[in-house]
């Protein structure tokens, strides 16, 4: 069985701080700027643009809001995006979100619609 996905990528500027950063990286305790590089993959069930990815990208760019000064981690941002995508397309699709700081370090979160573990 093949699982089909579409994906889009986009970027958002944000400033955050990691208040409880370990001493080795204590500079992260202060507000600092990043470009969030975001990739969203959503399961589709046919080959004919069931989700039109250009329209989906535009929707994400307009609806994903990262506060200019936040304590959010990449993981928190990814969780929020999954929730927003579920509101738009329902919870019966697998969704994967990658969020990185400056296209360097980040996270991947995977929502499995069937509730199966993926590790």
**CATH H-level homologous superfamily name:** 6-pyruvoyl tetrahydropterin synthase/QueD
CATH topology grouping: Tetrahydropterin Synthase, Chain A
| Strand fraction | 35-45%
Query: What form results from the Cα inertia axes?
Result: elongated
Counting structural domains, the number is: 1
Largest sheet: 5 strands, mixed
Low-confidence stretches: none
What CATH first level would be assigned? Alpha Beta
Number of helices: 2
Q: How confident is the prediction overall: mean pLDDT?
A: 91
- What oligomeric assembly is this protein in? single chain
In N-to-C order, the SSE pattern is EEHEHEE
- By CATH, the architecture is named 2-Layer Sandwich
Q: How many β-strand runs?
A: 5
Kindly report the spatial arrangement of strands forming the biggest sheet. 3-1-2-4-5
- Helical percent range? 10-25%
Radius of gyration computed on alpha carbons: 16 Å
User: How far apart, in Å, are the first and last alpha carbons?
Assistant: 19 Å
